[in-house]
Structures are given as structure tokens and as C-alpha cells.
Amino acid sequence: TPEIPILLRVLSTTLPALIEQLAAKPAAKPVKLLVIDTLTELFHSHARVSTATLSQRSKSLNEISALLHSIASKYQIAVLVLNEVMDVMDRDPSADPDDSYDLVYRDQAQFFNRADSIPGERRKEASMGLVWANQINARIMLSRTERLRHLEDTEHRKRKRRRVEDQSSSNDQLTRIRRLSVVFNHVASPQSLDYIVTDEGIATLPETAEFDPPPPPMAPAVVPANPLAVR
């Protein structure tokens, strides 16, 4: 799309010039964070998917990643790239008997595209596939769960004061629990936590025994029925 060359020009020329210009002014605040919201929008297309389009997308992602890594390293700033998620379609393993000895992408994607710390979290996975996953240092998944939590008493009173008189109060004291999961990163093991969003900001919640985090997924090991039939 035309927006991709524009982004490449901004990252290669416009943004570095702005960062250096602000750094040269003692009274100016330096750039410390770069946010791209969202990178996936640039790759939405109604064109038919082909080998050529996939190759061009991979090339563009590699070019964007190289520029972002260069900016982060040279100017010591953090880079946050927002992505989108897709629904995960579980398939019956018996439907593909010929894949029993192959390293199938849909089986490996759970290690870098999905979180699986609570039931239902693995129903979504990150977009842009393995090409983009290979370019990033960390992946964080944010999701809204089906769980609700009663707010603390101080927050109850604040919400009640703002409540409209004719509005039902049955759910006024409940707030939606959200989940943050670090799928992978280059400095620590994957972690997850619950948090809530209130009028006062974001607050983390202590872990409960309701959902014990599952053990880290292990790569599937396939033992062929015939030891000599290895391919």
C-alpha cells in the first residue's frame, strides 16, 4: 500500500531528524518512546494472496523492523508496535494423518503467537505470522476476560456518587478483569497477571487459586510407529 513507503521514509529520515533536533535543545524533552498504532493496518488488502504478495509483505516487514531496531539502538528509545489478533481455529489432528512427522506451523505458533495462562486465552493469536515474530524482542498479549471483580469500598463510593439515579445498581460494583501475558521476551521467562482499568487508572490484581497457570507448552514429540520410517 502507499502508506508503507511513507512509513519507511518517516522512520529513515523524518523521525531521526526530529529526535536529533529535540536532543540539541537543552529545554526540550527528548523522545523516549515510539508507538506505532497499528502496523497491521498497513497490510490489509483485498488483493488475492499469492506467493508474490507474501514475499513483498515479508520484505516490507523486514525493512520496517531494521529501521526500528536501528532507531532504538542509536537513540536509546523504547519502541512499541501494536498488532492485531486473529481467531484460532482448532483442527482435529486425525484430519491430517500425513502431517504426523512434519513440523506444522499451526502447532508451533502456540510458542510465539498465543498466550495460554488461563482458560480461553489461547483462542486468539497475534497477526503477521512468523516473519514479524522473528523481528521483535518481546510479545505482550492484552485481553478482556469473562471474569468480574468487586471493587474496593473506596472505589465503590466514588462510583455511586457518579451513578445516574434511574440506572440499575446491580453491576455498579463490578469491574471487568483483564489479562496481560508476556508470550516471550529475550530477558526473562513468560509471565502473566490480572489487572483492571478504573477511573483512577490501571491497577494489578494478586493471583488467585481460581486459575492456576498451566505449565509452559512443550514442543510436540512424535515417535514413528516404524523406527526406520523417518523422513
Automatic annotation (TrEMBL):
Limits of the RecA family profile domain: 1-85
Task: Name the source organism.
Answer: Laetiporus sulphureus 93-53
Q: Which superkingdom heads the taxonomic lineage of this protein's source? A: Eukaryota
- Region (Disordered): which ranges? 151-172, 206-231
Q: According to the UniProt entry, which residue ranges have a biased composition of type Low complexity?
A: 220-231
InterPro entries attached here? P-loop_NTPase (IPR027417), Rad51_C (IPR013632), RecA_ATP-bd (IPR020588)
Tell me the PROSITE patterns matching this sequence: RECA_2
GO molecular function annotations of the record: ATP binding; ATP-dependent DNA damage sensor activity; four-way junction DNA binding
The identity of this protein, by name, is: RecA family profile 1 domain-containing protein
- Kindly list the GO CC terms recorded for this protein: Rad51C-XRCC3 complex; replication fork
The biological processes this protein is annotated with in GO are: double-strand break repair via synthesis-dependent strand annealing; meiosis I cell cycle process; resolution of mitotic recombination intermediates; t-circle formation; telomere maintenance via recombination
